Description:
By secondary structure, the protein is an alpha+beta fold. It is 52% helix and 14% strand.
Amino acid sequence: MDSGVNKNWSSGDEKLLLDTIDHWVENEVKPIAREHDQEDKYPEELVERMKELGLFGSTISPEYGGLGLPASIYAKIVTRLSSVWIVPGGIFNTHLVMAAAIERCGMEAQKQEWLPKMASGELRGGIALTEPDAGTDLQSIRTRADRNEKGYLLNGTKMWITNALHGNCLMVLAKTDLTAQPAHKGMSAFLCHKGAGYDVAKKLKKMGYRAIDTCELTLDNKQVVPEALLGGEEGRGLQQVLGGLELGRINVAARGAGMAEGALKMAVRYAQERETFGKPIAEHQAIQLKLADMATKVEASKLLVESAATKLDTGQRCDMEAGMAKYFASEAGVYCAQEAMRIFGGNSYSTEYEIERFYRDSMLMCIGEGTNELQQIIVAKQLIQRNKI
């Protein structure tokens, strides 16, 4: 974000953009969500529309063809979209985390080569960090990058990689020095196009978060040129990657808040339609207590997301705030989906009702972009660091 933020966004511009997003979500996203989820079918036409709307360039600087949205506006888009379906936000989230790393850490030639094509959606990317035996503990990755006369050879296996199948590029975290201590000093990030040596082993079948390409990826002597090394300097990969995760965590937090809000809206409507003992269940106090708790968590989630996004926009350190937002809002998404299931009763277990999809999707937000347990540790450490006695 930093210098990429377009500071000329007025309240009128913001309203016009969000009205456009609302219309798109209601008329193009909502009608296809259930079908694509149930069939685990990638939303090709929706992705093309996302290109037209500029969503793949949401937070990329206008200098490189993006919208340069402040994180605060970007988060509102993600929240509104996720109140209906979280998959589209996932498609451009990991893409924008990669773009943010390039804009923040890349050499100017790398920015000129990659960012305009990423902003238009011609290049759709992601980040290849996680491995079968390394998730939260990224310093344990085994993927290696060995120098040769043409640049680097990448070898290793990555797991749970979004946009690996339908996208066409990735930022890959690999070890350039296996003996470095601490281990992060031997880690580097590479900008990698699809091609020879880049093999999508399989699309993973998932309980929820369907219709998006989450894959296992094998790099087998994948040759990249020297210019693929992000920033042109080895040993800085982990810092380059982690710096972009604040934007990613704000996205996940916004998706959690959106899911919580979507579940609440469905529950409020259903509670007024469904009758027991001669009256709508919304008139039963037990249901009212659930709705009140849900509504409070939704509003609190939105405020935490806004707080983290505002700090990111103003260039302040926000790992604690992003961690708080991601932790609370994702848990709120799970809570509201579960409570809505109880309000829907037996009907919640039928695929005829959308709430079962929210229930299946919600748990992912507590795991993705760093587990919530990790977020709690980040928050606690920063709390102590900022209030030393």
